[in-house]
Design a protein that fits this description.
82 residues; alpha+beta; YaeB-like fold; five-stranded mixed beta sheet; 5 strands; globular
């Protein structure tokens, strides 16, 4: 699957230290092969199919499938994510 990252998520990524940006990027890239990987993934209680993925107890990635794409629409600090 193809990964598309929204401008909002890209803005957050660009604000991260280089090491954290690389780690978050690796997690996002894995979604292309496994949109529902094992780990701290939860389907959100929304009308449309949406997920949140906690990673490294530091960040939360919000994403959803859209046809043949995975859309990463937001990334936040873990304290902000639920």
């Amino acid at each position: 699957m193809k990964i598309r990252i929204t401008e909002r998520a890209l803005k957050f990524l660009s604000s991260l230290p280089m090491k954290d940006c690389r780690i978050v990027g690796e997690h996002i890239e894995r979604l292309a092969d496994h949109p529902h990987p094992k780990g701290d993934i939860k389907r959100l209680n929304t009308k449309k199919e949406r997920y949140r993925m906690h990673m490294s107890y530091r960040y939360t990635i919000y994403y959803y499938p859209d046809g043949q794409e995975i859309i990463v629409n937001d990334i936040v600090n873990a304290e902000q994510g639920t």
